[in-house]
């Protein structure tokens, strides 16, 4: 039985959540497992080191929160707002994040494993050294994102927008970049698997030439 098979406890307000699971106005290291937090305004809260397993935060507002080293698994976070978040070393696994907004956030060194990030926005986000593996970023907007040394191995990036991105040293092997759009991208030292795997558009650059070919595993 997975976490998603259990009934969720509905929390009706920010104040009720802090009273039930917080301490001194903070949710740092809190256990937020199997909660229904849909649509709540949780902006600015400290969730450093919190465990959020099997919970639903659809359409919730987490702008300006601290999410360093948070552990999130098997949750529904579709449409969540995560702008201006500090998420260093955050861990997300099998989380639904369709249409989520990570704009101006710092998720350097984060792990996003087998997540649905389709249509998500990462405008001006910092994602250096992040491990984003086997995740769906179809039609994601990565305008201005810093992805230096990030690992996107096995991701779906069809129709994603890479505009003014830093992809230096990024690992794009085994990704699907069909119809991805590349414009003013820094890609020195980036890796992709085999021959050019996309038929996307670019301006002023031949990205097939800019990216190194790597045929190994």
Structural description of this entry:
The protein is built from two helices and 13 strands. By secondary structure, it is mainly beta. It has a five-stranded parallel β-sheet, with no helix packed on it. A three-stranded parallel β-sheet has the order 8-10-12, with no helix packed on it.
Keywords:
217 residues, mainly beta, 3-stranded parallel sheet, disordered C terminus
Number of helices: 2
Q: Roughly how many Å apart are the termini?
A: 34 Å
Q: Give the topology string: H per helix, E per strand.
A: EHEEEEEEEEEEEHE
> Mean pLDDT, rounded to whole units?
89
Largest sheet: 5 strands, parallel
What's the total count of β strands? Answer: 13
**Sheet with the most strands: spatial strand order:** 3-4-5-6-7
Radius of gyration: 18 Å
Decide which structural class fits the backbone: mainly beta
